[in-house]
Specification:
12 strands, 7-stranded mixed beta sheet, 250 residues, 3-stranded antiparallel beta sheet, 26% strand, alpha/beta
Length: 250
């Protein structure tokens, strides 16, 4: 598979495109390890839902500009991350232009099909992050019921699946329905970002239940420790009415 790659820069931010107007990744040049795009920050909101030292084993499907891989490598020293990226040229660009660190004992990049990997690998993961799209912003097999069911089978007891669902693309609600069916309804979707991205979480094992004080405190702690600012996300959740009792539970 060959991916057409374009790189643009504006106002100190470098952007990755797959031969189209859709942004596939971004890096603020002065803060290369920060999560520049809002949806990438929200894909790490699982850190609000499980207690440290979670996660210890992370699987990323789709590398893009390497933003999430870099954030985990820099700020979650207990985590060991495996990335599965279908296009070798994406890996090369992430390394050369977006400062993806070299592989070590905590970061491994594999070139291959993410859906095939999850279906055949027998490892257990604390966090599976799915952010894989083609040049037309289509997820293909990464949006299938079979893939979501395979992800569920690969999660540890405290495991979470974090999925970027591009809400501007037709079929988004179908993806969310498939996710719910695969995980027996144990799914929580954040309100849409201004970019149109919707981040959804699913759990296959132990329930998620956060009380109002601990949720707010964790947001503050995360920002202080890692720079990850989820206060806007929390405010959007409160405004959307998705926290009627101030809790996230699924």
């Amino acid at each position: 598979m060959t991916v057409p790659i374009d790189i643009s820069e504006e106002s100190g931010v470098r952007y990755l495109h797959f031969g189209s107007v859709w942004v596939q990744g971004a890096m603020r040049i002065r803060k290369p390890d920060a999560l520049e795009l809002e949806y990438t920050r929200e894909m790490m909101a699982g850190l609000l839902l499980r207690a440290a030292p979670w996660p210890e084993r992370v699987l990323l499907i789709g590398l893009g500009a390497g933003s999430i891989a870099k954030f985990i490598h820099r700020h979650l020293p207990q985590a060991r991350t495996t990335v599965v990226e279908i296009a070798p040229e994406v890996h090369a660009v992430a390394s050369q232009y977006f400062r993806l660190p070299p592989e070590d004992e905590r970061l491994q990049v594999m070139i291959g099909d993410g859906a095939h990997f999850v279906a055949n690998d027998e490892s257990q993961w604390d966090l599976i992050v799915v952010d894989g799209f083609d040049r037309n912003a289509r997820a293909g097999e990464l949006a299938s019921q079979a893939f979501y069911e395979a992800c569920k089978a690969r999660l540890s007891s405290d495991g979470l699946l974090s999925v970027n669902l591009f809400g501007q693309i037709r079929g988004f609600k179908t993806q969310l329905k498939r996710l719910g069916e695969a995980f027996d309804g144990h799914v929580f979707a954040l309100p849409p970002c201004p970019s149109g991205n919707v981040v959804a979480f699913a759990r296959g094992g132990n329930p998620v239940d956060t009380s109002p004080p601990s949720l707010g405190e964790r947001v503050t702690e995360l920002k202080a420790a890692t720079g990850l600012d989820l206060k806007p996300t929390l405010k959007r959740l409160e405004k959307s009415g998705q926290l009627p009792d101030g809790r996230i539970a699924f």
